[in-house]
Design brief:
Elements: H1 21-28, E1 32-36, E2 39-42, H2 44-63, E3 67-68, E4 74-76, H3 77-83, H4 85-88, E5 94-97, E6 103-106, H5 111-121, E7 130-139, E8 154-164, H6 167-187, E9 193-196, E10 206-213, E11 219-224, H7 242-253, E12 257-259, H8 265-268, E13 276-291, H9 293-298, E14 301-303, E15 309-311, E16 313-320, H10 321-331, E17 333-334, E18 337-338, E19 349-353, H11 359-374, E20 379-382, H12 388-398, E21 402-406, H13 408-413, E22 416-420, E23 426-429, H14 431-438
Parallel strand pairs: 3-7, 19-20, 19-21
Antiparallel strand pairs: 1-2, 4-6, 5-6, 7-8, 8-16, 9-10, 10-13, 11-12, 11-13, 13-16, 14-15, 17-18, 21-22, 22-23
Helix pairs in contact: 1-10, 2-6, 2-10, 6-7, 11-14
Bound molecules: adenosine-5'-triphosphate and magnesium ion.
């Protein structure tokens, strides 16, 4: 992408309404524009990051054997009356009436709708286990939408639902989700810690939230410092193996890590004092096992091996896709701007031409741009007629992992400069070696 032809509306001033770094930086870097309270348009740069996060979530879900679908945002109230949640949900649900006076709602979550799909088409235990998921916009009429996309009213969520014959199978699905979530967040360059949590309006007993530690997080968390040393890494896992998934769950949940809702000081105080941590975190996901709560209420049964109809055991599992954009920035920024991890960066490489209009510099930039793009990298070439200082400031603000600086002086010596956004370190390198250095 050539910046002269792109749409990157960066702001010079720090917007006064933004209280936390990620919100300020998303506005300043031209990633989002507020449409109304808690509702945002995604501008080109922000949209690229959102898509990258979605892609990783899709890949990791499908790696775990989960099947993508897409359900609508608008739902009929009748389904929610069947489960009893139409009345129970409260003012966070946006209720709508259509022209025929039918009650509709903008879905805050999809347990009812997926259970309806399941009961319409599946009737035998032989079709199980099954996990369906989608990535779709949700609406929750939050009392205090704030912190930009972190607590929006309209937000993008991955929500997945498992259907199993027995509680045991459903707990395997729970563990499988925990493992796949660990992989998902790590691939984005994030550490998200599974913590025991409270189930809220979804219902059920078994639930973990995934929290990214950050001072600006809305949840208070209590944990054993040993937990932050755990890494999932690049281990191979067989998602069908009950034993493998169970042992990952045990490894990642055996140390104390809880949100304030389930915090138990008596247990916490048994941890050696130097390992006790009280901090804040951003919830980027949650997994639940809730058994037959919805299947019983809505008649989602399968015929078991014994020929008897039994309600399926279910769980639901969410990832805050749009919130992750903010959480990633909270965890990756400095005083100059965003510092994107490679996997989610809107572009991996920025080219800065410090002397636009100089024939040699322009030709060298064009050649690099073509070569890097052909090598499969996503490149943003700042080809504007701008001062070098302004170009550097923009690159630092939008946080691309690598910057290549091209100017007549370096080219005379046969080199360009390659700079790492995170460390700030630069090296001189021959232009023809850049592609190899980055791939
Ligand atoms: N208002 C929101 N804005 C952005 N993301 C959200 C919002 N509410 C929930 N999410 C994301 O969706 C994920 C799954 O939804 P879940 O039903 O667990 O949310 P929740 O527990 O109600 O969230 P919270 O406690 O933050 O209100 C959450 O872990 C979070 O990352
Ligand atoms: Mg939650």
């Amino acid at each position: 992408m050539r910046l002269s032809r792109y749409f990157l509306p960066v702001l010079k001033e720090t917007p006064a309404e933004a209280q936390i770094a990620s919100h300020r930086l998303m506005l300043r870097a031209g990633m989002i524009k507020q449409a109304s309270a808690g509702i945002y348009s995604w501008l080109p740069l922000g949209y690229r990051v959102l898509r990258n996060i979605e892609r990783i979530v899709h890949e990791e879900q499908q790696r775990a054997g989960h099947i993508p679908v897409l359900m609508p945002t608008l739902q009929s109230a009748d389904l929610w009356r069947e489960s009893g949640r139409y009345d129970a949900y409260g003012p966070e649900m946006l209720r709508i009436r259509d022209r025929h006076d039918r009650d509709m709602l903008y879905g805050p979550t999809n347990e009812e709708m997926i259970t309806d799909i399941f009961r319409s088409h599946v009737s035998s235990y032989k079709d199980l286990p099954m996990t369906l998921y989608h990535i779709q916009w949700k609406f929750r009429d939050e009392v205090r939408p704030r912190f930009g996309v972190m607590r929006g009213r309209e937000f993008l969520m991955k929500d997945g639902y498992n259907f199993d014959l027995t509680k045991e199978d459903a707990l395997h699905a729970y563990n499988r989700h925990l493992v796949s979530y660990l992989r998902t967040y790590e691939r984005m360059g994030l550490q998200a810690i599974p913590m025991r949590a409270d189930s809220g309006p979804i219902g059920g007993d078994d639930t973990h939230e995934f929290l990214v530690l950050a001072e600006t997080g809305e949840s208070e968390v209590f944990y054993d410092s040993e937990i932050t040393d755990l890494k999932f890494g690049d281990r191979e896992i067989d998602y069908d193996s009950v034993q493998q998934c169970q042992s990952v769950l045990e490894e990642f949940t055996s140390r104390y890590a809880r949100t304030d809702e389930t915090h138990d000081p008596a247990i916490f105080d048994q941890i050696p004092e130097d390992r006790r941590r009280v901090a804040r975190g951003i919830e980027v996901g949650q997994i639940f096992y809730f058994g037959t709560k919805y299947s019983e209420a809505m008649g989602a049964t399968v015929q078991g091996p014994d020929g008897k109809a039994t309600p399926v055991h279910m769980g639901s599992h969410g990832i805050g896709v749009s919130r992750l954009v903010g959480a990633l920035i909270e965890a990756n920024h400095d005083d100059k701007g965003i510092v994107w991890p490679w996997e989610v960066a809107p572009f991996q490489v920025g080219i800065v031409n410090v002397k636009q209009g100089d024939a040699t510099a322009d030709a060298a930039c064009d050649a690099l741009y073509k070569e890097l793009t052909a090598a499969g990298l996503e490149v943003l070439y700042d080809d504007r007629e701008e001062r070098a200082g302004a170009k550097f400031a923009t690159m630092d603000l939008i946080g691309l992992p690598k910057r290549i600086t091209v100017g007549p002086r370096g080219l005379e010596k046969g080199v360009v400069e390659l700079t790492d956004r995170r460390t700030g370190e630069s090296e001189e390198i021959k232009p023809e070696l850049v592609a190899a250095a980055l791939t």
